[in-house]
Design a protein that fits this description.
Structural class: alpha+beta
Distance between the termini: 80 Å
Largest sheet: 9 strands, mixed
Oligomer: single chain
Number of strands: 23
Strand content: 35-45%
Order of helices and strands: HEEEEEEEHHEEEEEEEEEEEEEEEE
Helix content: 25-40%
Amino acid sequence: MKGWIMTPLRMPLALVFLTFVSLLLSGCKASDVSSEPEPQTVSVRVSEVTGGESRDMPLRFSGIVRATQRATLTFQVSGTLKERAVELGQKVQAGEVLARVYNPALEPARDSARARLEELATGYEQAKREWERSSQLHERGVVSEQTLEQIAARRDSLNASVATARASLAQATQMLEESTLRAPFSGRVEALLVEQDEFVASGQPVMRLSSPEGREVEVRMPAYLLDHVQLGQTLPVWSVQDRSQPPQAGSVMEIAQAGAIRGELHPVLVSLPVNTLEPGVPVEVGITPVREAALTVPLLSVIRNADGTSVFRVRENVARRVSVDVDRVVGERVVVKSGYLAPGDQVVYAGMTRLADGDAVEVR
């Protein structure tokens, strides 16, 4: 009977073929199932960028609370203080009479100026009527042209004299009114500087008046601190009498310009909230100097490449190369300048040998 008989040589060849086919099939299946390997994250260590604004301890400057609207009142004429209608601490209204001085020359000067004005006004009216009559006679040929001109000149001269006399009367009347001192605004009498029956010179302070509306304090400070305050800035104001109270919030209203005098202190005016501190209360105003501190990074984070020096900044677990300019080394940190770094940023200082721009990182 005929049949197919596998010889010993054919059997190993068949086994090899079957093995190859099975390996080929298994390889194809493995390639179908597996995907591309995920990018590996680089393990690094980071440190924070320091710098930005640095605030020192607040410096305190002393001052006295005062009224925002205040005035030292004076007479514009000299005389004897004959009447003082107010007392210390009294409240007054705008326009109210506060005091009067007596000067024996004021009333006679006014009366003389008034009489002179009446005299000249009468002469002017008479000269005007005379010119009107002479004009009619001149039309009839009775009065010459020269006479008419002389009458007109006299009339015009009297008219100018009337104007001068009227001004003199106004001046004399005003000087007499200046002998009465009136309140320029509603407020309270803070001080009485002259007693009754004393002689008061022109411009001599007589009393001080302040308004209850608004409070302020003036402090003086060195010129270098003027750069640390600005208009509208809020400053703390402490009461010296009761330091347990919280500070009031004052607002900068005026800042003096620095002068050239060595050692001179410059005033800064601070407005206070209404109904907080009374005038005369000693206070302290706090001013905190603010300085721009340099950016610093760890010395190990700075790397040198073909384009210069740079660091790896980490944001959202991604490292990006950022160019920096090295200024100086301070201990274990480096002062750098960069428009791409800010205080609080994270920079890599360990694990940079396996790091490239844009790599995902794992912060240890």
